[in-house]
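Predicting holo structure, magnesium ion bound.
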Amino acid sequence: MIPAINIQDIHKHFGALQALKGINLSIEQGEFFALLGPNGAGKSTLINLMAGLLRPTSGTISVMGHDVQRGYRQARQSLGVVPQELVFDPFFNVREMLRFQAGYFGRGSENDSWVDEIIESLGLADKASTNMRRLSGGMKRRALIAQALAHKPPVIVLDEPTAGVDVELRQIMWEFIKRLNREGHTIILTTHYLEEAEILCSRVAVMKKGEVVALDSTVNLLKSIPGKSLRLKIKESFLPESLRHMIRNQEESVYTLSLIDVTQIEFILSELRKSNISIEDMKLLEADLEDVFVDLVGDHA
Amino acid sequence: MFLLIWLVIMLEKQIIHPFRGAFTLFKKEIMRFWRVSFQTVAAPVMTALLYLLVFSHVLSRNVQVYEGVGYTQFLIPGLIMMSVLQNAFANSSSSIIQSKVMGNIVFLLLTPITYTEFFLAFLAASIFRGLVVGICIYLVSIVFIDLPIAHPGFVLMFGLLGSALLGTFGIIAGIWADKFDQMAAFQNFIIMPLSFLSGVFYSIHSLPPFWKTVSHFNPFFYMIDGFRYGFFGMGDISPYFSLSIVLLSFLVLSWFTLILLKSGYKLRG
Ligand SMILES: Nc1ncnc2c1ncn2[C@@H]1O[C@H](COP(=O)(O)OP(=O)(O)O)[C@@H](O)[C@H]1O
Ligand SMILES: [Mg+2]
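Done. Tokens:
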């Protein structure tokens, strides 16, 4: 099957700044994919290159098999982009904007029922005739998503869709995006909320300073760092020899021990008892993308 | 003309697909200025009428430009054309700069609309606005003053080409400017002087030789003189010559604009 997105050796320079330094990435149709990374990693730049808003310094990108430069018309037909900034056109209301947007893609009145459906699903029905200027931030964000969907693109890219969005709306948006994915759309989102990638996405690329530093399924990425870990605060400042290989981190008498599975806790406790070391505090830590993130992106990695 | 109306109806009914993107953009541009027609149509009509009132009152007794043409009569075609040109420029330039500043130009840049379609849609909307303003001024003026049209063909040709030229100029200005004050500078230091020094209020034959020569380098002069010829059958120079100059300027400027759009200058980094 043709990949939804195929990125080959993409470089993008802004003057002296190398915003992207050779990105290779292929995203399959039907995937729910996250681009994860701190601010300035180059996520938006990569998306803007997919969308044709920027042109690469070198390298190629195709969307559903269409090169974004040579076959830009087909590539753009296949792509719906939700920009990071809350942009809007102050002259028109929500429904007008959606119809125009569909019209730019060559869709006419036969598409109006789809427009109504998006308005309905995104909870915009009672705002459909409201001027864009008068919408709240959250509503503007929904309208922005709606606009990206107006021409029913098979591939949908959301650039930090839930940045600055309240918890309730975030839930609504997650449900909606999940539904789009179930209905067969390929979803790519960028985020620096790790929770978001963890809950929604099946595969994650972690970006750092213009490079992909990790690319794996969310599950594997979680596995690649020690699963759970145990944080111990002990009276003495050394651990018995038998436990030393498990140490992941030590700060004075606080040790973090990696666990392959939870039953190791009993072994740890019995070893400590044998050596007459008493425990002051103990906590079992869950692994999450935050750990992966810190490991990969943090400077102490 | 009928062909044009037929085309619009077919597009409205969405029977013709390939141009729908560009047509939607054209329609949106029309709606955009129509929503604020008080500013975009009523205000320029009012301004033109005020000029007419003031200048005709002050000068009408002293000036006779052409045989059998009163000064007020002489003034109207020039004022109409000046408003047509300024409004055609304003339409494309303000729309593009606003979209850039607001950031909503991405909605357009994300679509499969080609750069040629982009150009044609903004151009057509500018022409439309220019002509609407021009026709309104004409209709209001003829309530007060007798103003027959000797050569409607010339009036139409200069109206269309003039607004097309300035609409194109507006597209370039909109793409180039990053801020509203740059656009205001463009308007105040290029468009306004050129339109005021083009012979709207006088015939260049009444100018000293030096300024007469200078006027020949002002493209607005040819548009105004040719347009006026359409009304009176008289002008400072041959209307065919003016028409050639305007047509040539339009072709050169369109070609330049298309190159600019194709390169993605200031629109696609
Ligand atoms: N148009 C631009 N001109 C110059 N530098 C830019 C431009 N866009 C982005 N950058 C720079 O490129 C880098 C990557 O930015 P961006 O892609 O927005 O990161 P992210 O979306 O991951 O936060 C940053 O250092 C940013 O300052
Ligand atoms: Mg970003």
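The radius of gyration of chain B is 19 Å.
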